[in-house]
Structures are given as structure tokens and as C-alpha cells.
Amino acid sequence: MKSSVHIIGYEFELEKYASFSPQTQRRLAQNREAARKSRLRKKAYVQQLETSRLKLVQLEQELVRARQQTTYTTQPNGAGIGTFEMEYAHWVEEQHKQVAELRRALQAHVGDVELRMLVENGLNHYANLFRMKADAAKADVFYLISGKWRTSVERFFLWIGGFRPSELLNVLLPQLEPLTDQQHAEVCTLRQSCQQVEDALSQGIERLQQTLSQSMALDQSIGGSYRVQMAAAIEKLEGLESFANQADHLRGQTLHHMARILTTRQAARGLLALGEYFERLRALSSLWAARPREPT
Amino acid sequence: MEKVMGLASENGLVIFSKSSCCMCYAVNMLFQGIGVKPVMYDIDQDPEGREMEKALMKLGGAAAAGPVPAVFIGGKFMGSTNEIMSAHLSGQLVQMLKPFHHSMS
């Protein structure tokens, strides 16, 4: 249908065309050709964009699905930790985004409703970390409490696989002023309770070390005693997972209570201060590694 | 179960433990740190230990990491490490332990 109309129109144009000068005719032909080429290029470009867009949507869906999968418990030990390292790298990236978001929101003086959402996101993000760590502890508790997955300066402050919550409270407090007298009292009580739990857990781990060391020092290599000795030692080491979990439970509870004591705005400032603190420690680790040294 | 509940009601503050359990030791240290001295009952040293362990597992439910430590305050089952830590951070533990203070810490 289109071609017959085109032919009729073309014949009409032909008459007009014949009356033009040769130069004009040539110019018109060139213009037509250029326009045709331009249309073809545009068509190809649009098709490319469409294909890329579809690919992007597919990739995004795959990424979400991959992140949602829990893979540790069904994989052998080594693989579980590999997944943890990858997940932790994503966690740090997301943390960075959230910190930037908090900074922007506080500078822009957004309302409490939006701040509340950001605070909830921040708290959930930490809860996710503790869940990831619990899975990693099942796969390889020594890896987790060694802090191998953290930067060097963070490892310097390590207490049972992470930061000391009471110390973090000390870091945060000056950033949260002004606090009401009531808030001050509650934070001080929280900090004291936190320290007491930390001391108890530290003493528990020390006892584990001592008793394990003592039992390993005995030479029970004769007959079945060796098996018994080793079995008892393994049972002891399995207790380490509890300590790792309780340390994270303490961290989570401390965050929860701080969010309860503080106003939304203060909690947002607190989360920002905490995130920036960790970022600075990580940056320090990089700078330390790259510092200029005397050639040996 | 009767033995467990019997011991719990006889003693105001009991932590059922095992001699090899270091988390039990940690919970004991926490209580002592806040000024009370709980009775530590090692179920692995008791001839009825297996039954007691089963009873404690039932009390603790699916969420508990193990039968011990199992903390009883005033004859009532308070939970394991998780519950005790949470209770201390919320300030509830100190309140519950007030009648058992022989000295303020």
C-alpha cells in the first residue's frame, strides 16, 4: 500500500524535479541520501539502547536474587567464608552510601519522618552485618574472630570479632551533645552495663584459653585417652561460636538502646558519626600501608 | 524436671551449668560483677544429669544455643545467656536481683 502511494507521490515530484537546475537536482539527491543514512543510524542506535536497557534490568534482578540467597550453610567451610568476604564488601559499599545520605539529610535539615527512615535503615544494616557474621561463625569461627576480614587499624581495636561497644559509646558521646540530664544518666548506665557484659565475656574467653591450654599440655597420647582429650578440646572450641554471637548480640543491643534513648535527629547524628569513624579508620589503614618508608 | 525445679525453688539464684562450659563461667562472672553470688550447679557432675539436660533443653526452646547456662531467679526460669545479657542492658536484671544483693557493687 505504502509503495503505490509512494510511487504516485514520486511521479508528482518527478515533474517538479525536472524543472530544477542540475546543481539543485544533485544537491537535493545528496540531501535525501544524507537524511536516509541519518534515519538508519538513529534506528540502529535506538535498537542498541533498547537491548542494553533489557540487559540492565536482567542484571539488576540477578543481583537482587544473588544477594537474597543464603549460601553459607549449604557450602563447605572455605566457600562459606568466600561468600562472606564478598557480602561484607557489598555491606561496606552500602554503608558508605548510607553515611553520605545521612550527611546530606542532616545538612539539608529534612523532617523527622525522613530522618526516622534513614535511622531505621542504618540500624537494619548493622543487624544484617550481625546476621552475616553469625553465618560466618558457623562456617569458621577462627576466621571471624581473627578479624582477617577487616582492615589493619580496625583489627588493632578488635574485641571478639569486632569493636568494643562501650568504646564506641565513648566515641559517639561528644558528637551527640547537647543531651538532657535524663539522657546523660541513661547513656552512662548503658555504658556501664555494656562494660560489665564485656568483662564477663572476656573472662569467659580467657577461661576457655586457660583450660584448653592446660588440657593440651597433658600428654595423653597413650590409647583412647588421646581421642578423649581431643574430643573434649573440640567441644571447648565449639563454645567459641557462642562467644562470637554474644559479642555481636551485645553490639546490636547497644545500638538498639541508644536509638531508644536518643531523639531521631540525635540518632541520625550518632549513626553518621559512627559511619564516619569507621571510614576514617579504614582510610588510615590504607594510608598506613602506603606510607613512604626507608628502602631496606 | 522435678530435680531442676526443686533446686531452682530451694535457691534464690541458680545457674545450671557444666564444668566445661565457659559461657556459664562468663554469666557467673557477670552476676558477681553486679554484686550477687549465684549457685552454680554443674549438671554433668550429677547422676541424673542427662534427664536434667533434657528438661533444660525443653525449657530453653528451639532458640537456645544449648541447655546451659540456664538461669533461674526466684524459682523462675529467666533464660540463657542471650536473655540475661538483654535484661542487663535494659536495666531489668539489676531490678530483679535487688532482693539477692548482699552488697551494693
From TrEMBL, chain A:
Q: Where is the DOG1 domain?
A: 81-291
Supply the alphabetized keyword list: Activator, Coiled coil, DNA-binding, Nucleus, Transcription, Transcription regulation
- Coiled-coil spans are 42-69
One Gene Ontology cellular component term attached to this UniProt record is: nucleus
Which residue ranges does the record assign to the BZIP domain?
21-63
Q: Which Pfam families match?
A: bZIP_1, DOG1
User: Main localisation, per the record?
Assistant: nucleus
Q: Where in the cell is it found?
A: Nucleus
GO biological process terms on file: DNA-templated transcription
Which species is listed as the source?
A: Linum tenue
Protein name, as recorded: Transcription factor TGA7
Q: Would you identify the family this protein belongs to, as annotated?
A: Belongs to the bZIP family.
Q: Extract the PANTHER family matched here.
A: TRANSCRIPTION FACTOR TGA7 (PTHR45693:SF7), TRANSCRIPTION FACTOR TGA9 (PTHR45693)
A GO molecular function term, named singly, is:
transcription cis-regulatory region binding
TrEMBL record, chain B:
One matching Pfam family is Glutaredoxin
Q: Does the keyword Cell inner membrane apply?
A: no
Q: Which Gene3D superfamilies match?
A: Glutaredoxin
Q: Give start-end ranges for the coiled-coil region(s).
A: none
Residues annotated as domain Glutaredoxin: 14-77
Q: Which domain of life is it from?
A: Eukaryota
- What are the GO cellular component annotations? cytoplasm
- Keyword field contains Cytoplasm: yes
Q: Where in the cell is it found?
A: Cytoplasm
Cited PROSITE patterns: GLUTAREDOXIN_2 (PS51354)
Q: Fetch the NCBIfam families from UniProt.
A: GlrX-like_plant
Q: What is this protein called?
A: Glutaredoxin domain-containing protein
Q: Which organism is it from?
A: Linum tenue
